[in-house]
Amino acid sequence: MKPAAFDYERPNDLAAALELLSCEEDTRILAGGQSLVPMMNARLARPKRLVDINRLPDLDYIRDEGTHVAIGALARHRDVKSSRLVRDHLPVIPAAYEWVAHAAVRNRGTLCGNLCHADPASEMPALMLLLGAEMVLTQASGTRIVAASDFFLGLYETAAGPGEMLTEVRIPKPARDTGWGFEEVGMRKADFAWATCAATMRLDGGRIAAPAAAVAGVGDRATRLAELEAAIEGQAPSDSLFADVAREVAVSLDPPSSVGVDAQYRRDLVGTLLPRALAAAARRAEEAKQ
Ligand SMILES: Cc1cc2nc3c(=O)[nH]c(=O)nc-3n(C[C@H](O)[C@H](O)[C@H](O)COP(=O)(O)OP(=O)(O)OC[C@H]3O[C@@H](n4cnc5c(N)ncnc54)[C@H](O)[C@@H]3O)c2cc1C
Fold first, then answer.
1. Which of 52, 56, 71, 213 is the least crowded, having the fewest Cβ atoms under 10 Å away?
2. Residues in domain FAD-binding PCMH-type (predicted)?
3. Which residue's CA is the closest to the ligand 1 atom numbered 33?
4. CA of 128 relative to ligand 1 center, distance in Å
């Protein structure tokens, strides 16, 4: 299939790109093209104009900013997955990347493009919620910072406005003794998730501290599980605790049904995967103390 006709711009600097984006006609950013181009080919997206950002300088970086890791708009999945900095401070990210797409897609697709696409079954939005990331949105008139919790609004919908570019994502470095767990089930690795569950926590005197948990693939967007976090904070980690809280999450979900993967199966997956993710986070937090 071929896309509908569109205009194509390839600016060489950020100011020119933002100027093009600020025009009123239906203009979309082209980053890795791994989601946008298939959607255009299927005529699910018909932008009048594409602004290709691949020639913009200084947006392809993964930087240590002390309290956080900063990842620029042109950092490819491949580079984030293999980054030593990311592995050292945010090990749940490369673990999750084992489930994201194929090497060819990861070579071209960008983390920021993935977050702006906001597929409800995508792994990285769930991780940005889990890790408390911030999105740096830039437009011709200035920059604003939006918490991940306010960024993902619904199915393929984010807080980024028409003239805005996600120029950077900032991911806070968790405390060194933070444990993590990541679990997913899909048709195959590299396919979108039927259910994804991720968790982090610390242990303080044998009790759960600063827990975080998020799910994807089971609603119209990735979701952080605030009630579960409140229920386990200060408790001693145990399989029965994790099974109980996961059961409550599972029944509260309203997941989509698709061919061969009905809503009840996705709930059952959460009931199984979430305790595993929580238990893995507790185990790694315990190991980090030794
Ligand atoms: C076969 C295949 C398998 C895949 N499997 C998975 C998977 O398992 N998990 C997963 O998460 N993803 C998967 N993907 C999607 C992949 O991760 C994409 O690379 C990613 O979703 C989009 O990144 P991109 O850079 O290619 O963005 P593009 O396709 O270029 O853009 C996507 C959208 O974001 C907008 N956009 C891009 N960059 C910015 C920016 N900086 N600021 C504002 N808006 C922007 C575009 O205008 C467009 O609307 C798969 C893709 C394919 C083709």
1. 52
2. 1-176
3. 117
4. 15
CATH of the domain at 269: 3.30.390.50
User: Is residue 2 situated within a structural domain?
Assistant: no
User: 99-148, pLDDT tens digit by residue?
Assistant: 999 999 999 999 999 999 999 999 999 999 999 999 999 999 999 999 99
Structure tokens given for 161: 């406005």
- List residues bridging with 46 in a β-sheet: none
The Å distance, Cα 115 to ligand 1 centre, comes to 7
> Ligand 1 atom closest to Cα of 124?
11
Which atom of ligand 1 lies nearest, measured to the CA of 112? 41
Picking from 124, 152, 172, the residue at the C-terminal end of a domain is: 172
* Token code pair at residue 99: 């489930």
Q: Please state the domain count of the chain.
A: 3
CA of 244 to the centre of ligand 1 (A): 35
Residue that finishes a domain, picked among 172, 194, 223: 172
Q: What is the distance, to the nearest Å, from the Cα of residue 266 to the centroid of all Cα atoms in its chain?
A: 19
What's the 105 CA to ligand 1 centre distance in angstroms?
9
- pLDDT per position as a tens digit, 137-189: 999 999 999 999 999 999 999 999 999 999 999 999 999 999 999 999 998 87
Name the closest-CA residue to atom 38, ligand 1.
113
Print the domain residue range for 45.
Answer: 7-52
Quote the strand ranges of the chain, DSSP E: 7-9, 27-30, 49-52, 62-64, 68-72, 134-139, 142-147, 152-154, 157-158, 165-172, 179-186, 193-204, 207-216, 223-224
Q: Which residues of 27-54 are buried (b: 16+ CB within 10 A; e: fewer)?
A: bbbbbbbbbbeebbeeeebebebbbebe
Ligand 1 and 117: CB distance under 6 A: yes
112 lines ligand 1 (CB under 6 A): yes
The closest residue, in CA terms, to atom 46 on ligand 1 is: 29
Q: How far apart, in whole angstroms, are the C-alpha atoms of residue 20 and residue 11?
A: 9
